[in-house]
Amino acid sequence: MSTLRLGAYKLPAAEVVLVQTLFRLYSHGDTFRWTFVTAPPYDALLVDGTTDEGMNPDVDRMAKAVLRLTRMNSGRAPNTLERPIRADRLQDWLKNTEHDLIQTRPATLLDEASLPTAAEAPAAAPVQINPLRFKLRRWPPAALLRSDPNLIRMATLLSRRALNAAELATISQQPVQECQAFLTTLQTTGLVDVQKAPVAPPAGSAPAQAAAAPKPAAPAPAFARGLISGIRRRLGL
Amino acid sequence: MNEYKILFTGTMGAGKTTAIGAVSETPPIVTDVVNNDQSHTKERTTVGLDFGQFTLDSGDRIRMFGTPGQSRFDFLWKILSKNALGMIILTDNSRPDPLGDLRVYLEGFADDLDIMPCAIGIGRLDDHPSPSMDDYIEELARHNRVLPVLQVDVRKKDDVILLIDTLLAQLEAGMFGE
């Protein structure tokens, strides 16, 4: 059986989390063929139909099928879904779209054996480390942070300074893949601004590497680092 | 031995004294008196400051100060905030206008907030869901602030520690690369 890929484009973070949660629920059956992904290519895309960006025709070129979220009580038009997102209606649309896509032999259909299940996909998918630095433009909603102290710490760091995944991993002491996944989620949900890093140099070019590499975490005043680690130790963090 | 300071501020009844007590190694010193502010039903309130502390392995001490809640004591806020490592603003969602309360502190500490790490702890959100966390985040955005906003129960030590951890993370971010 093949797997289809649904992405989200500039949706509010809470709705992204909701859709991810619904996918985990849907995947408990054997017949669900969709996986939620955070990077292209997409077979289908979920966008905010109440914004100019969401209604831009360019969005329709990003995937074979586009589902636009609309305001409550705005009427049910094809390829739209009224807010709040209803699990049954989203599932119906996915089933119909799946049927249409399979009829037209989608190019992005992948063999099931090559992809994890929908529930596993976000964690298991290979993560490309993005050199771009991101800074939080708005504190993420609670649904995205899930009261997870590591996510809260990462968000806090990004609220104060533009960081890329490698830098975020260095400071937060979290795996770089988790940092990248978190940054991707924040980017998908429009919660971060991008600050471009220097272009990566050719391999072996030492001066260029020095120029392009993320700025290392040079030792800050020892007393400050010692103080922070001392407080953390004292508080059991 | 060095001494450092963390400030707890917020409205009357938001739980500053309780929060300090949750992490202080000694019972907090409180300067409560009988409340004669008829806008609030709390029997006793802080008119000076609260104080608690904990000691690090190095012997350094972290002193935690709670400001008096009422804005008529804002002259004390300025004094207390000097050289603080960071500040925690506690709000009480059961009050009539919690976002207005937050505005008082965002404006009262505006100069400090340009530099000083700060986190917002929202109390009594379970029983009083409005305004929502998103409403607080939106209010901060109106003030061009991106600060951690966490739902807290200040009686829980872990919740208070998490707020302090966000202050530490902000300090770390500020030091990164220096």
The arrangement of helices and strands of chain A along the chain is EHEEHHEEHEHEHHHHEHH
Tell me the structural class of chain B: alpha/beta
Assembly status: heterodimer
N-to-C order of helices and strands of chain B: EHEEEEHEHHEHEH
Task: Name the largest protein-protein interface in this structure.
Answer: A-B, 42 and 39 residues
Number of helices of chain B: 6
Instruction: Enumerate the strands of the largest sheet of chain B in spatial order, edge to edge or round the barrel.
Output: 4-5-1-6-7-8
Topology, number of strands of chain B: 8
User: Into which percent range does the helicity of residues of chain B fall?
Assistant: 25-40%
What is the level 1 CATH name of chain B? Answer: Alpha Beta
Overall number of structural domains of chain B: 1
- Give the beta-strand count of chain A: 8
The averaged pLDDT of chain A comes out at 78
Summarize the amount of helix of chain A as a percent range: 40-55%
* Major β-sheet annotation of chain A: 6 strands, mixed
Write down the Rg of chain A. 20 Å
- How big a fraction of the residues of chain A is strand? 5-15%
Number of helices of chain A: 11
What is the 3D form of chain B? globular
Give a brief rundown of this model.
The complex is a heterodimer of chains A (237) and B (178). Chain A is α/β, with parallel strands linked by helices and 237 residues long.
